[in-house]
Write a structure and sequence with these properties.
The complex is a heterodimer of chains A (115) and B (115). Chain A is mainly β and 115 residues long. Chain A is 0% helix and 48% strand. In chain A, strands 2, 4, 5, 6, 9, 10 and 11 form a seven-stranded mixed beta sheet that branches. Chain A has a four-stranded antiparallel beta sheet with strand order 1-3-8-7, with no helix packed on it. In chain A, strand 4 and strand 5 form a beta hairpin. The radius of gyration of chain A is 13 Å and the shape is globular. With 115 residues, chain B is mainly β. Chain B is built from no helices and twelve strands. In chain B, the strands form three sheets. In chain B, strands 2, 5, 6, 10, 11 and 12 form a six-stranded mixed beta sheet that branches. In chain B, strands 3-9-8-7 form a four-stranded antiparallel beta sheet, with no helix packed on it. In chain B, strand 10 and strand 11 form a beta hairpin. Chain B is globular, with a radius of gyration of 14 Å. Chain B starts with a strand and ends with a strand. The chains are: A mainly beta (115), B mainly beta (115). The interface between A and B is medium-sized, with 29 and 23 residues.
Chain lengths: 115, 115
């Protein structure tokens, strides 16, 4: 079974530029999560989707971050404009209550460096 | 507030010796607890989880963890460490009462196993 796919793996941009990340969850997983992992810290949830609806976006900086999951499968996370403090690894995860009791499975992440 | 603490930033162990990576938590009600491992430039890999039942949980790669409700701890253990176990380990608690079950992570513990 294929795991969670993310692209790109690495991205370097200058501050005030925009950037987008893509995630394709494990097939059949209705729940999709985006986490931000700053160096030296544990991942922090940015947004959670259930199918194509938002369950939790309380930690998403909505003035610059946006995310969508239009068809309830893959998802994109966008930052516009980027700030230096957005440098982090962006992790996508997916889960299903029918598989592993809802355990979240993570993709390889996108490492973003904002200069 | 819900939180997870990993009191040691780094744990050093000699190959063949037992290892313990500590985790304590503070949540309302009964927690779902998880351990994930992160290798360099990789995403998080699921190791094991506690939901209910036996306090000793066995997981991947010979790891196990012991849930202690009175001490609110969920320490990760392995009887005999391997050099290949060297990685970053994260403890997490899953919130199940609201917000769809997001994971709250500790700050991580760097495990170094020397030959």
């Amino acid at each position: 079974e294929a795991g969670v796919a993310q692209s790109p793996r690495y991205k370097i941009i200058e501050k005030r530029q925009s950037v987008a990340f893509w995630c394709n969850p494990i097939s059949g997983h209705a729940t999709l999560y985006w986490y931000q992992q700053i160096l030296g810290q544990g991942p922090k949830l940015l947004i959670q989707f259930q199918n194509n609806g938002v369950v939790d976006d309380s930690q998403l900086p909505k003035d610059r971050f946006s995310a969508e999951r239009l068809k309830g499968v893959d998802s994109t996370l966008k930052i516009q404009p980027a700030k230096l403090e957005d440098s982090a690894v962006y992790l996508c995860a997916s889960s299903s209550p029918r598989v592993g009791g809802g355990t979240q499975y993570f993709g390889p992440g996108t490492r973003l460096l904002v200069l | 507030a819900q939180s997870v603490a990993q009191p040691e930033d780094q744990v050093n162990v000699a190959e063949g010796n037992p290892l313990t990576v500590k985790c304590t938590y503070s949540v309302s009600g009964n927690p779902y607890l998880f351990w994930y491992v992160q290798y360099p430039n990789r995403g998080l890999q699921f190791l094991l989880k506690y939901i209910t039942g036996d306090n000793l949980v066995k997981g991947s790669y010979g790891f196990e963890a012991e849930f202690n409700k009175s001490q609110t701890s969920f320490h990760l253990k392995k009887p005999s460490a391997l050099v290949s176990d060297s990685a970053l380990y994260f403890c997490a608690v899953r919130l199940i009462y609201n917000q769809g079950g997001k994971l709250i992570f500790g700050q991580g513990t760097e495990l170094s196993v020397k030959p």
